[in-house]
Write a structure and sequence with these properties.
alpha/beta; Rossmann fold; 2 domains; four-stranded antiparallel β-sheet; 6 helices
Length: about 240
């Protein structure tokens, strides 16, 4: 019997719940040979773009998963810079025979088109394993799968400061306002996943300062922007690496 080699791929990794669940699904079902995790990091502040999680925690996540991490470093926060840096990193991966990039996006059409158009420019293809899946079902599968995650950022058009640092569990889902998608797919909230079946070890942390940052639009990247409400800014929870 001839066994076909699985296609090589990069996984777009934000460090949050959708990334964690999607990667777990991809690896469990043997869909692709995932060679790298890919994350955009603000090189000035040493934090994951949009989520605001410290780079040190990102590194610990990747080490616990056991897949090498590729970082797209940005400082200006513009689309032009982001696309230029992303293209450079992806072309390097393509030179290694990798032509697929996997995303955990669920239903934002504009975001998918944006990703696919940019990948097409360099002859790569986007893969979306969670596409159009029911978000209530997904969040319940995530919780029942024993993943552990906390809220690290909220869009003030949907959720306030009091939601920061909360665990995603059944109580969290029950208490969400009706305007909020269960998975936060409209950018209502972002998360940091620190434990679960994807990880070899728990990523320890403590909850630090909670900070509000008014919205300054420098990019049309729909990862960060709200879809249905007026947003004045974002609340961020500084997660501090636990002492080892």
């Amino acid at each position: 019997m001839i066994i076909m080699n699985k296609a090589k791929a990069i996984f777009s990794w934000s460090g949050g719940k959708d990334s964690a669940y999607c990667l777990y699904k991809v690896l469990k079902e043997g869909m692709f040979d995932v060679k790298y995790l890919l994350t955009t990091v603000n090189g000035k502040f040493k934090r994951v773009s949009v989520h605001g999680v410290r780079e040190e925690l990102l590194d610990k996540q990747a080490a616990s998963i056991g897949i090498p991490l590729l970082k797209v470093l940005v400082t200006e926060g513009t689309n032009e810079e982001y696309e230029k840096q992303m293209e450079m990193v992806l072309l390097q991966a393509k030179s290694e025979g990798i032509e697929q990039v996997i995303f955990g996006d669920i239903f934002l059409e504009d975001l998918r088109v944006y990703r696919e158009n940019n990948l097409a420019k360099i002859g790569m293809k986007g893969i979306f394993p969670l596409w159009k899946m029911n978000t209530t079902m997904l969040i319940n599968e995530f919780i029942h799968g024993q993943f552990k995650t906390v809220i690290c950022c909220t869009n003030d058009g949907y959720l306030g400061k009091e939601w920061l640092g909360r665990e995603i569990n059944t109580s969290f889902i029950t208490e969400l306002p009706a305007t909020v998608d269960p998975c936060g797919e409209n950018g209502e909230y972002h998360t940091f996943c620190y434990d679960g079946p994807l990880f070899k070890n728990k990523t320890g942390f403590t909850v630090g300062e909670k900070i509000y940052k008014p919205l300054e639009i420098k990019t049309n990247n729909v990862d960060a922007l709200p879809a249905k409400v007026t947003t004045n800014g974002f609340w961020f929870c500084d997660l501090l690496p636990a002492a080892t």
